[in-house]
Design brief:
- There is one protein chain.
- The chain has 12 helices and 12 strands.
- It is an alpha+beta fold.
- It folds into 3 domains: 103 residues, Arc Repressor Mutant, subunit A; 149 residues, Endonuclease Chain A (Endonuclease, Chain A), CATH 3.30.870.10; 55 residues, Winged helix-like DNA-binding domain superfamily/Winged helix DNA-binding domain (Arc Repressor Mutant, subunit A).
- Helix 6 links the parallel strand 5 and strand 6.
- The protein is elongated, with a radius of gyration of 30 Å.
- InterPro entries: Sig_transdc_resp-reg_C-effctor, TrmB-like, Tscrpt_reg_LuxR_C, WH-like_DNA-bd_sf.
Length: 320
Amino acid sequence: MRQGLTGVLSEAAAKLYERLVVSGGLSLVEHPDLDDRPETRELVEKGFARKRYVGAPLLVPVEPARAIDNALMIRQRQLLDQYQLLVRLRDEMHALQQAYRSASPLAPEIDELVQVMTDRAEIGALSVELSLSARTDVMSLETEHFSRPPDPRSARTLPAEVVQRGVRLRNIYSRAALEIDGAREMLQLSVEAGWTCRVYPELPMKLVLVDDRAALLPLGPTGMEGALFVRAPVIVAALRGYFELLWAASVPVDGGAVKLAPEQDQVLRLLLTGMTDAAIARHLGISERTVRRHVGALQEALRVNNRVTLAAAAVREGWV
């Protein structure tokens, strides 16, 4: 039996269809039980077989190319029905959400924009739910503050379909966070799960951002003492802008090892030869401002404040 058929037919129906194709058809007189078998009904309903009553009644196969076209049309109709069901469900949930907010003791407009959460389990669950619902981006900041030592098994993994639908998963770690036991292994597992990770010298807080529509802000260092669930567009946009500034100034890491972006690596290597910013800019075909931005990011990542110590720190870290 060809494995491909089992993707659209049951195993029994796939076997019967292949038998029909090989034989050219089966007599309903010689096989009286055939008419009432579920696999026969399945083949007829899905357009893989038909009953012919010209002369002796037969169950005959539909040409494979047409049968597959029939199966595709049925699947397309099913997908359309499912999509329409989801649209109706979304509209119904929106109406229920409005009713829920109207019944809230808080003013609906305030409850919609900012919510204080103190239940640890609820905060963790909301973080996961937000990530699963992402349409374009999930962004987070991770500091060295944990309520308990990080367990690699707690690495944030999301179902493969989240990544497959094009959602970008980005995480920035403070340098101190990567120095905690277990953190490097947790980071490696996160990278394998689809996260792109970077490191920044110091971060003021943890943060979870989803698209341009929601954010979780901690009320304490670990983020589990309490959190603000923010949906105010102006605040979320400001937090998104802050995250992007940090992202541009942070250094990529791959499985716990610092991995410079190609242009950062080129700037660093040319800087170590003694070239000026202007010469580096001409050599790479970029602006002097871009060169200075890369140098500043490298200094921040290595926690140095001048180019002399930058060179020594880059060698010490094995970047060159």
